[in-house]
Amino acid sequence: MEERKKGLTIYDLAEELKLSPSTVSRALNDHHSIGKKTKKAVKKLAKERGYRPNAIASSLRTNRSNTIGILVSWINRPFISSLISGIEKEARAKGYQAIISQSHDSTELEIDNLQALYDSRISALIVSLAMGTTDYSHFDLFKDSDIPVVFVDRIPDMLNINKVQINNFNAAFEATEHLIEQGCKRVAHFGGASHQSIYKDRMLGYVAALKKNNLEVDEAIILNANSLSEEEGTRLTEYVLNMDNPPDGIFCANDKAAVSAIQYAKKRGIKIPEELAIIGFNNDPICEIIDPPLSSVHHPAQEMGKAAVQKALSMIEQNGTSETNNRVILDTHLVIRASSKRK
């Protein structure tokens, strides 16, 4: 019996049920042309006999696998790991598996990994760009093959793409205005690579909040860093605190830099939030561990992953095409903690 299970095929099921192999195949794939009674009988026998579909053979026939490719920057970042979790959970619920690849924020590695994912005959691709990517021509391979591509969080500055994102402008505006409401008069901004739309929008939201509240927009304290790492957060904090007129508030475009800002300021004997109020972005777990706990913008990573899968599968059903409204925007909210709360 064990030998039969290992080699069991659709033809074996069809013979036992007195059905055609094509009917069995469609029943296993929930095809609308097959009745509920037949589907139930086929699936019941398949389960009893230990049948497993041959994914490799299927992908060779259709030139696609039942797999969604995921390409992100760093899988060890809390936001990205939550994003992947959301993608995998939704993909599995819909009968798909996921292949995960990371670019390490290298455009060259991003290009290599895209080719590998393409060669794996994925059915769709969900991607968050490498920090340095400014040319997006390597995605044409998927477009030309009608393989759906959904961009998440870090998205290209292009028209007619499918994307899942938050309103970065509004989120940054609210974070900056919170600092102002707490009494900050001179708020610095630490942003990421300015060519990335998410960091551009966060900077614009910060500027808009300053203008609304009649505060000076000082280019000297609007600083960008390539990766906005812990080291860069420390360097930027040291730079602004050594100014003749240092800021009394900092809005960081991620939590890594914000945590570094807290740590460096404390070493300098600066009281947080009394002398320097700080807020980050993403609401990473470290926000509750650092002393004082870090205020941040909650970024709905898992929900974004789920929405990206739903978008990709919708496009698969439409043979790779997409409706005109190809953007999904999810809500954010502030999580206020002791690093910024003065009142």
How would you describe this protein?
The protein is α/β, with parallel strands linked by helices and 343 residues long. It has 3 domains: 2-53, lambda repressor-like DNA-binding domains (434 Repressor (Amino-terminal Domain), Orthogonal Bundle); 64-165 and 301-330, 3-Layer(aba) Sandwich (Rossmann fold); 168-299, Rossmann fold, CATH 3.40.50.2300. It is 44% helix and 15% strand. It contains 13 helices and 12 strands. The chain has helices spanning 2-7, 10-17, 21-28, 36-49, 55-62, 78-93, 107-119, 140-144, 168-181, 197-212, 230-241, 255-267, 301-317, and strands spanning 67-72, 97-102, 124-127, 149-152, 162-166, 187-191, 222-224, 249-252, 277-279, 296-298, 327-330, 333-335. The strands form 3 sheets. The chain has a 6-stranded parallel beta sheet with strand order 2-1-3-4-5-11, sandwiched between helices. It has a 4-stranded parallel beta sheet with strand order 7-6-8-9, with helices on both faces. α6 links the parallel β1 (67-72) and β2 (97-102). α11 crosses α12. The longest helix is centred in the last third of the chain and has 17 residues, at 301-317. It starts with a helix and ends in an 8-residue tail after the last strand. Mean pLDDT is 89; it is low at 1-6 and 59-63.
Give a topology summary.
Layout: H1 2-7, H2 10-17, H3 21-28, H4 36-49, H5 55-62, E1 67-72, H6 78-93, E2 97-102, H7 107-119, E3 124-127, H8 140-144, E4 149-152, E5 162-166, H9 168-181, E6 187-191, H10 197-212, E7 222-224, H11 230-241, E8 249-252, H12 255-267, E9 277-279, E10 296-298, H13 301-317, E11 327-330, E12 333-335
Parallel strand pairs: 1-2, 1-3, 3-4, 4-5, 5-11, 6-7, 6-8, 8-9
Antiparallel strand pairs: 10-12
Helix pairs in contact: 2-3, 3-4, 6-13, 9-10, 11-12
